[in-house]
Amino acid sequence: MSCRSNVAPSTLEVDLVEGGIVVRYLDGREVFYHGPPAAVEEAVTTPPGKDVHVLVTDPDGIEGVMTYVNDLKTDAGILESTGVGRIVLDRGERTELFPGVTVAAEGYSIRVAADPSVVDGRVFVFAEDEFDERAYELVDRTDAAVVDGANEAETNARIEPETNGGSEPETNGTEGTDAAGESEPNDPSDQPAEGP
Fold first, then answer.
1. Average per-residue pLDDT in the chain?
2. What is the pTM of this model?
3. CA distances from 195 to 3, 64, 75, 77 (A)
C-alpha cells in the first residue's frame, strides 16, 4: 500500500476521565480523545477516510497500547518516540492487531472487531479527521445493552450537539504553543513526515 512501515506499540499510561480518555505518550505529551465512547457490540466499521486509532487497555483502563491503522503521514521515528504503533493494510486485508482484536481494510473504511472471550481488557476505537471525532468502545453483547441505555439517557439530556475538532493535548489554556509561544503539534500525526 505504501512505503510506510509497521511500528510496534509501547505500553502507555491511560486515564479514563469524565468526558473522554487521556493517553500519555512516552515523550511526556498527552492527547485527549473526546467521549464518552459509544458502546458497540464487538465490531465497528469506521466512516470512510477517517484517521483510525485503536487503543487496547488493561481491564482497569490504567495502561494500554495505541496503534494507528493505515496512517501514512507520520514518520516511524515520531511514532517510536511517542510509543504509538502503526499497522498498514492493503484494501481487503485483515490481520490480528492484538490477541482477540482484528482490523480489516474494507474499501476506504476500517473495520475493528474484538472477541470479548479473548481480549483481556477494554478496546476503544477513535475515528477522526479535521471535522469531527468519533469514539467507540467494543463490548460484548450483554454489556452493550446496559451501556446503550446509559448512553441514550446521556444523549437525551445533552443540550448542545457534540462538536469536536479532533484529539488535542491538555495544555491548560496554552493549547498548541510551548512556553516560548512557539507553535507545537498536538498529535504525532500532525508532525510532517521526514524524508521522501
1. 79
2. 0.73
3. 11, 30, 9, 11
